[in-house]
Design goal:
single chain; D-amino Acid Aminotransferase, Chain A, domain 1; Glucose Oxidase, domain 1; 4 domains; 35 helices; binds phosphoenolpyruvate; binds magnesium ion
């Protein structure tokens, strides 16, 4: 027969699936001999069975009754015994903490009779009646379904009539009257009396806690925290202890170390003469834990002792809830405590130093997300005001600047020395100079893989995107959010770690961890702890970590951050700015000679870019991707051009031939669906001379670096392959060009030629493609886009929040790799690619390369390296290390 109820002494911390987190830890403390009020746990399995059928599973009621009898026997009194009642608490406790989301019922066992017994044994009428009115109120709302506001209104009316500012002014007879009012309220609302049978109170409370698993609050919380709906909650039934029995009683919360810094020092709050609920509710002000040392030295010493015991046992920071009942200390709850990112690192290092955990365990205790949080200046959260808007936290950090609404204004003000935040509906490659000039980018549309997000992350620039509550009035040069108008030039603060935007300049705190990555300056406990974790990760990881970088500065930074090469150098950024004119000339060329001239003019500029990057990454691989985006992206906007021409015509001046030719070209190249159009390898195959120009620039850069005594290791990557034939054709052109440069320079230039795998067809035919490719790099941005059929630029704003709410996925597949679909394609391509070519080098360079969960996936899928933006390199190193543990 299934066992649905466990005595605390039967369980343990490794039974959290069955007993919930709270129940498992209560059991653990009981077994450690710590003073836990006795009780038992009804399992999550019982809850699941109840929720599936709507009734208690067979045997549950009897099991609870048997455990109650045992509890009564050990206490020497019965539940609700009129002259000296045993009272119980019934609390939820799921596998994962869901604070305040489910129900708790205290003081079960109080009735019209036993309240008098409690008054007598406790020596306090007031205490007894206050406990009873709490029970009636909690039971009435939670179990019997009376609206909680009705109880609140009743107590407020009573206080008003007595001129009492708070509950403490209500005496025993006031509270006794209140109990009557509450009971009448319950009968009136439900047609049923508050039950006077203590056992009925208990059973109905357990059932109510089960049901609260499916309450609206709990469901929402689970969705947000990615907790499965199927787990169910356990229910802990425990003898009540009271912290509100006088000055020698009280309740508090304590941590074994400071959860903000990780350092060892007493940390917590204490509330004399109060129940635990009062501490949480914040009705009265607590005192620091150290004050307990003065108020009750014996209990304080005992508590410190027990904290030490717990930390040594759990080998981690723990937090506890405790109650002192007339000088006796009781432990009501413990768990491994939440901590800040700073505390996570410091604590891991200290516990390792103390010999409590190993270096590998210390590495497992920190995360890439924690590291990322520490790399950016932060807003001093204690000092920020109300939020102006919320969006998607796309690129972390905190920035302050004057709001500007277009690229030109951003550049102008930045050149004048002003700090600016570029606020746009969405960004395009045209906004690049403005993004470079700005401290932060804020958009009202687009998701984590929108242009703004990807580019900002690449630059390590703060970005919040998709802030839909932001209405941008470009004409009026202002935006409106939450009823507040922000005129151009008004200072705003953008928190890219939380997605929050504030009005005004929020105060900033600098990052010592970032200084360490930039300069190697290893000062302070925190920096030292981060450095140690990374060293360990580097020692154990199998995955290589490269960076996505396309300027020498980014390449150099990536190297300082620990990148072992460049996994993706996007060459399209090298076609912007002043070079657009040359790109236009290439597109508009009437003759081969014109085109060659335009390409020839681009060549030295590209070469110079590559020389800088190869120099910064000397001795390490640099994967250069041939041009990917559609060419029309480098031409002026179609509407702007048409307006310019129409305006000229209206004025009677004929438009320039250049403009009309441009418009013609734009119209010719216009695509309804450019993401699936003439881009990637397709472009290289239909735009004569383009591939040759790029490859020549790479090869000549290699020659130049070699002549300078360097060790350039360029690799050439072909984007958006569908079929092996595409790769074969481009590869031939690449090899011819390399041979030509080798010949003219007299220096052999060998560059491995590989391909991106970013279309499902490529993944599914990877075996054939591998025959032509020295390496694969998964472009998981496009692979996600094309596998799901989701436009990477649109969907996040359009319907992802609805999809997340409905639980279709728990996290955007553009953020964390979808293991079942996209991941399956990755695995197929790895297996078939390696089968065809065992030495095939395989990496990933989509945004997922810097996402912790995805890094673990790529480790398990057998990739050789991940490539991510320079600022994510430490995150990827750390997670690659953790994945290998
Ligand atoms: C990708 O598609 O994952 C990729 C890296 O290429 P891009 O983002 O430039 O399309
Ligand atoms: Mg791509």
């Amino acid at each position: 027969m299934v066992q649905y109820v466990y005595e605390f002494s039967e369980g343990g911390r490794d039974m959290a699936d069955l007993l919930g987190g709270k129940g498992a830890n209560l059991a653990e403390m009981t077994r450690m001999g710590l003073p836990v009020p006795p009780g038992f746990t009804v399992t999550t399995e019982a809850c699941r069975a109840f929720l599936a059928t709507g009734t208690e599973p067979d045997g549950l009621t009897e099991e609870i009754a048997a455990h109650l009898t045992a509890l009564e026997q050990s206490a020497g009194r019965r539940l609700g015994q009129p002259d000296d009642p045993l009272l119980l608490s019934v609390r939820s406790g799921a596998r994962f903490s869901m604070p305040g989301m489910m129900e708790t019922i205290l003081d079960i066992g109080l009735t019209d009779d036993s309240v008098r017994g409690l008054a007598k044994v406790s020596g306090s009428e007031r205490f007894a009646w206050d406990s009873y009115r709490r029970l009636v109120q909690m039971f009435g709302s939670t179990v019997m379904g009376v609206a909680p506001e009705l109880f609140e209104a009743a107590i407020a009316r009573l206080k008003d009539s007595l001129n009492a500012p708070d509950d403490l002014r209500l005496d025993a007879s006031d509270l006794a009257r209140l109990v009557e009012t509450y009971k009448n309220l319950i009968s009136g609302e439900t047609g049923e009396d508050f039950p006077q049978d203590p056992t009925e109170q208990l059973h109905r409370s357990v059932r109510a806690v089960f049901e609260s698993w499916n309450g609206q609050r709990a469901r929402l919380y689970r969705r947000r925290e990615h907790i499965p709906d199927t787990l169910g909650t356990a229910v802990n039934v425990q003898r009540m202890v009271f912290g509100n029995l006088g000055p020698d009683s009280g309740s508090g919360v304590a941590f074994t170390r400071d959860p903000a810094t990780g350092h060892r020092r007493p940390y917590g709050d204490y509330l004399p003469n109060a129940q635990g609920e009062d501490v949480v509710a914040g009705i009265r002000n607590t005192v620091p834990l150290t004050d307990l040392g003065r108020l009750d030295p014996t209990s304080y010493t005992q508590l410190c002792d027990r904290l030490g015991t717990l930390e040594a046992h759990y080998r981690d920071l723990c937090d506890i809830e405790f109650t002192i009942e007339r000088g006796t200390l009781w432990m009501l709850q413990t768990r491994v405590g939440k901590r800040t990112a700073e505390a996570a690192f410091t604590l891991a290092a200290e516990l390792a130093d103390e010999g409590l955990i190993t270096a590998d365990e210390a590495l497992a205790r920190v995360s890439g997300d924690d590291a990322a949080r520490l790399m950016f200046p932060r807003f001093d959260t204690a000092a920020v005001g109300d939020a102006l808007a919320h969006g998607i936290p796309a690129s972390p950090g905190a920035a302050v600047g004057a709001a500007v609404f277009d690229c030109a204004e951003a550049v102008r003000r930045a050149a004048a020395g002003q700090k600016v935040v570029l606020v746009r509906q969405e960004t395009t490659p045209d906004d690049l100079p403005g993004m470079v000039a700005a401290q932060a980018v804020l958009t009202s549309r687009g998701g984590k893989t929108s242009h703004a997000a990807v580019v900002a992350r690449g630059m390590g620039k703060v970005c919040v995107c998709g802030a839909e509550d932001l209405a941008i009035d470009l004409q009026g040069r202002r935006c409106i959010a939450g009823g507040i108008t922000v005129e151009e030039g008004t200072v705003i603060s953008v928190d890219g770690s939380t997605g929050t935007v504030y009005a005004g300049a929020a105060p900033l705190v600098d990052s010592a961890v970032m200084r360490y990555f930039e300069t190697g300056e290893r000062s302070g406990d925190l920096v030292d702890a981060v450095a140690r974790a990374l060293d360990r990760a580097d020692g154990v990881r199998r995955l290589g970590v490269r960076a996505n970088a396309d300027t020498p500065e980014d390449a150099a930074r990536a190297r300082r951050f620990g990148a072992e090469g460049i996994g993706l150098c996007r060459t399209e950024h090298m076609f912007l700015g002043d070079r657009r004119k040359l790109v236009e000339a290439m597109i508009l060329a009437h003759t081969d000679a014109d085109r060659v001239r335009a390409l020839d003019a681009l060549l030295p500029l590209q070469r110079k870019d590559f020389v800088g990057i190869l120099e910064a990454m000397d001795g390490l691989p640099v994967t250069i991707r041939l041009l990917d985006p559609p060419l029309h992206e480098f031409l002026p906007d179609r509407t702007e051009l048409a307006v310019r021409i129409a305006t000229a015509e209206a004025r009677g001046t004929p438009p320039s031939t250049h403009d009309t030719e441009l418009l013609e070209a734009v119209n010719r190249m216009h695509e309804e669906n450019p993401m699936l159009g003439l881009r990637g390898v397709r472009l290289g195959l239909v735009a004569p001379g383009l591939v040759a120009m790029q490859v020549r620039a790479i090869a000549e850069a290699v020659v130049e670096r070699k002549r300078a005594g360097g060790d350039p290791r360029a690799e050439i990557m072909v984007p958006l392959i569908d079929a092996v034939e595409e790769l074969r054709l481009v590869r031939e052109e690449v090899e011819e060009t390399l041979a030509a440069v080798s010949e003219t320079s007299g220096m052999a230039v060998h560059c491995p030629v590989g391909t991106m795998i970013e279309l499902p067809r490529a993944a599914l035919t990877a075996g054939r493609i591998a025959q032509e490719a020295a390496f694969f790099s998964f472009g998981t941005n496009d692979l996600t886009q094309t596998t799901w059929g989701f436009s990477r630029d649109d969907v996040e704003a359009a319907f992802f929040s609805a999809y997340l709410d409905k639980g279709i996925f728990k996290v955007s597949p553009f953020e964390t790799i979808d293991p079942e679909g996209v991941g399956r394609l990755v695995r197929i391509a790895v297996a078939e690619g390696r089968a065809a070519r065992p030495d095939l080098k395989i990496g990933v360079c989509g945004e997922h390369g810097g996402d912790p969960a995805s890094v673990h996936f790529f480790h398990n899928a057998g990739l050789d390296y991940v490539s991510c933006s320079p600022f994510r390199v430490p995150v990827a190193r750390l997670e690659a290390g953790r994945a290998a543990l």
